[in-house]
């Protein structure tokens, strides 16, 4: 769908962004393999999480979903049934990688596919450790790409030293050890998001974390529970940056997830000089959340790299836009993982922002961005990547003249009501 967008004279108001995507996926998956009923509030009814529901229904789990509430009749890990249909994960990397970890425990055969973007994303990072621990997996190019097929089995004690800081890899390996004889542990170069560890505990499992290593003992079962999903900080990020860079703006985002493995965007915006207020912090013992208010700010360029990268990996497209409005130079490095996201996000960010006249250069592991006085409306394309689409829509709000955005419906993957909420915050949608 082609959308036409224009500069706005300010964004003002307060809103609740949709539920966290990572937590919503896990709530459905863990609820499905738990014993008893799980209820979920604040679920993200985006395309990716609906793909997860669809896959677990195909394995015999009864799941009722209506808007942001879900009820799952868990079948226990041994109660999943062999799917007669192919499990289609759509656009969702989290669904396929975590589900492979779960399927490593089940003795039946399953076949997994996804959309054109998933077909290009590397799966060896998960299939290699699972194979190493004895799971039968095959797929295109020796198990690196979909279609994949898996037959799980009895697994033993296993330690994996992951070369990448990836919660999808860490989670897949940990989940593959749920029925193992002995302990499963994963060490990563930097700590990635820890929603799996936190939520497994909420389902009654014991998970140990020591430094950059997470581990669990096999033979544990999950017990159905209630999960409250906070707002997704990765979705809030679009309005945090919009509020900071669009003149005459003040936006309050309510109940945004503040898990410290995800708050790199807050640290970076504060270092860049953004005027942010964080209040009403709650939920410290499970998944913390808070209200965040942002006001129009003078930003300055900074260097972003190292351990903070996994804490803001999904926010780099919108941080790049913020950097076009920041004095001096912003350098983003150590972020080669961007190349294997829904699109190659180094290329898509750089090429699309250049169309607005931004001074941005791709590097091998990131980008270098210099301030641009006024972005110019352009003909842009989401490339089917939800986060690229939303970043471009915010860029359009700031740019002189008109911007067209092709494939704008990609935003429904993680933020089905993004354009409605953007409109709600516009006092006047006029060219300036
Ligand atoms: C996710 C982990 C991240 C992130 C993705 C969601 C998760 O991927 O980019 O959007 O829910 O575990 P990696 O773990 O591959 O970095």
Please characterize this protein's 3D structure.
By secondary structure, the chain is an alpha/beta fold. It folds into two domains: 3-19 and 230-429, Alpha-beta prism (UDP-n-acetylglucosamine1-carboxyvinyl-transferase, Chain); 21-228, Enolpyruvate transferase domain (UDP-n-acetylglucosamine1-carboxyvinyl-transferase, Chain, Alpha-beta prism), CATH 3.65.10. The protein has 13 helices and 23 strands. It has helices spanning 21-33, 47-57, 93-103, 124-132, 140-143, 167-175, 195-202, 233-245, 264-272, 316-324, 345-355, 386-398, 418-424; strands at 3-6, 12-15, 35-41, 62-66, 69-75, 87-88, 109-113, 136-139, 145-151, 156-161, 181-187, 207-210, 213-217, 226-228, 250-257, 275-282, 289-295, 303-304, 329-332, 359-363, 366-370, 379-381, 402-406. The strands form six sheets. It has a four-stranded mixed β-sheet. Helix 10 (316-324) links the parallel strand 18 (303-304) and strand 19. Helix 1 packs parallel to helix 7 (195-202), helix 8 (233-245) packs parallel to helix 12 and helix 10 packs parallel to helix 11. The longest helix is centred in the first third of the chain and has 13 residues, at 21-33. The chain starts with a strand and ends in an 8-residue tail after the last helix. Bound molecules: shikimate-3-phosphate. Residues 22, 94, 166-168, 171, 192-193, 313-314, 337 line the site of shikimate-3-phosphate (S3P).
């Amino acid at each position: 769908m082609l959308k036409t967008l224009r500069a706005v004279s300010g964004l003002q108001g307060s809103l609740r962004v949709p539920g966290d995507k990572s937590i919503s996926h896990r709530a459905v998956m863990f609820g499905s393999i738990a014993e008893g009923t799980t209820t979920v509030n604040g679920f993200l009814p985006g395309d990716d999480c609906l793909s997860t529901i669809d896959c677990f229904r195909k394995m015999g789990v009864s799941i009722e979903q209506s808007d942001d509430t879900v009820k799952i009749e868990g079948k226990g890990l041994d109660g999943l049934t062999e799917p007669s249909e192919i499990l289609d994960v759509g656009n969702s990397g989290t669904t396929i990688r975590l589900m492979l970890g779960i399927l490593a425990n089940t003795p039946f055969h399953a076949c997994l596919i996804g959309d054109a973007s998933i077909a290009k994303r590397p799966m060896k990072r998960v299939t290699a450790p699972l194979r190493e621990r004895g799971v039968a997996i095959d797929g295109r190019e020796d198990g690196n790409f979909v279609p994949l097929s898996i037959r799980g089995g009895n697994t033993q004690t296993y330690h994996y030293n992951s070369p990448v800081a990836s919660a999808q890899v860490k989670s897949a390996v940990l989940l593959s050890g749920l029925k193992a004889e002995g302990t499963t542990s994963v060490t990563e170069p930097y700590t990635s998001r820890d929603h799996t560890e936190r939520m497994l505990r909420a389902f009654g499992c014991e998970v140990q974390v020591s430094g950059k290593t997470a581990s669990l003992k096999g033979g544990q079962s999950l017990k159905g529970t209630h999960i409250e999903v906070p707002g997704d900080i990765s979705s809030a990020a679009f309005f945090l940056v919009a509020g900071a860079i669009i003149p005459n703006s003040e936006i309050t985002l309510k109940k945004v997830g503040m898990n410290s493995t995800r708050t790199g965007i807050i640290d970076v915006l504060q270092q860049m000089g953004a005027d942010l207020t964080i209040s009403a912090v709650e939920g410290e013992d499970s998944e913390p959340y808070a209200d965040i208010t942002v006001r129009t700010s003078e930003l300055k360029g900074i260097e972003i790299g190292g351990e903070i990268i996994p804490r803001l990996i999904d926010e780099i497209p919108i941080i790049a836009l913020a950097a076009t409005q920041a004095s001096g130079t912003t350098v983003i490095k150590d972020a080669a993982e961007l190349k294997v996201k829904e699109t190659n996000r180094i290329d898509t960010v750089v090429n699309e922002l250049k169309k607005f006249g931004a001074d941005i250069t791709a590097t091998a592991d990131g980008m270098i961005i210099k301030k641009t006085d006024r972005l110019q409306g352009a003909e842009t394309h989401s490339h089917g990547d939800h986060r690229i689409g939303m970043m471009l829509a915010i860029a359009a709000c700031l740019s002189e003249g008109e911007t067209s955005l092709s494939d704008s419906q990609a935003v429904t993957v993680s933020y089905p009501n993004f354009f409605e909420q953007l409109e709600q915050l516009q006092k006047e949608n006029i060219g300036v």
